Amino acid sequence: MPPANAAADLPSTFLDRKDLEQTITELFPSAWGGLSPIRGGGVAALAQLAQLDPIAYGCSRNHIDGAVSGLSPYIRHGVLSLAEVRDAVFRWLEERGYGRSGQRAEGRQLAGKLINELGWRDYWQRLWKQRGDAIWNDQEPLKTGHPPGRYADALPADIATGRTGLACMDAFAGELLGRGWLHNHARMWLASYVVHWRQVQWQAGARWFLQHLLDGDPASNNFSWQWVASSFSQKPYIFNRANLERFAGDRHCRGCLLAGAGCPFEASYETLQQRLFAPSPVGLDQSLPAPVQRLAAPAPPTRSGPLLGRPLVWVHGEALGPANPALRAWPEAPALFVFDTSLIAASGLSLQRLGFLYECALELPVSLRQGDVAEQVLAFAARHGADGVVTSAAVDPRFELIRRRIAVVLPVQVLEPEPFVRLESPPDLRRFSRYWRQAEPLVWRRFLTG
Considering the domain boundaries, does residue 426 fall inside one? Predict the structure, then answer.
């Protein structure tokens, strides 16, 4: 399909999803796979949000067939903000009578687990903003008793293709590759198998997940892998067959050829600890190191004065929803989303991830391009005679590098989206529990006070 409107613009109309998939395959020939059955965009996000049941979520979320929200891909890309989901939970409670005087505390208790999970994402994002690319480093020493060199730096092919012979692990890998989404418990089990049973560096597994997960966010993903690996937790996370069957039933074990004596998970936790780990070195400092200070490059020259009346709106992958503050502030301005080809190539993003992004962008009033983001934004701005660029804030350190390149030529105004919680002082991020003690009362304040 030839590009629409201008040579550099990507197609924005399609006959159906098959046509979209074919176009994306041609645009990104290195991308593997096909479209996910999970559709991108605000329409799909709002439909999923309408099915949200915070109470059922709190009761069954740990079970593979539990009432999970399914909102994570939309939250990750800003189709829905944490603030929007938070407010949807509060409305849900109020509509069922928990907003009445005397019922609010009960409502908080019933929906507390879902709000808590939203808090986890906010916590990870704050850590990413604080630590930058250091989220790819161990935050603490491992508690496995093994030296870092014991772990392989590449993911074995049988894991990456779902051909280990273990029915559970292969099913999880197959869902990752085919759907681009996994239940959180399945992610934990698969990560634990990769790191502790196969002794692979968590970074290799984290990169694998980010290739395919529609909600693949480096902060939530990397810190969760580190929690499993024990480089950001008090102990390594492991599971056994009884735990898997408790939360997933016997669907995997029932037909597994290794379900008998060959199952590596068929043991008590004490036995698995002895098999997998060595005694921890005495006197190991296991505290979280001081925050890594990201060195600021000298500010590039920018045009003096405020933005005038002809800005370009730059939309990026953390703000692909109508709540994007730049789109709200300038609804009539030309807007652009750029598929970052260098990032796509370096990360090996799957076609299902690119397809989800494409579908999200198609519902916004934006033009689409691919290539070097800064170059494309500046070229698009020149095409429209823009005198500046407006965008929304992002956590990814890559955003700041791109912003600085653009700012050499045009002034860039960055607008902050509504936060999940406004903290009254800088939080202690060494552990989630410390952050949540400060944040939780503020998150619930409006609901509890009416």
Answer: no
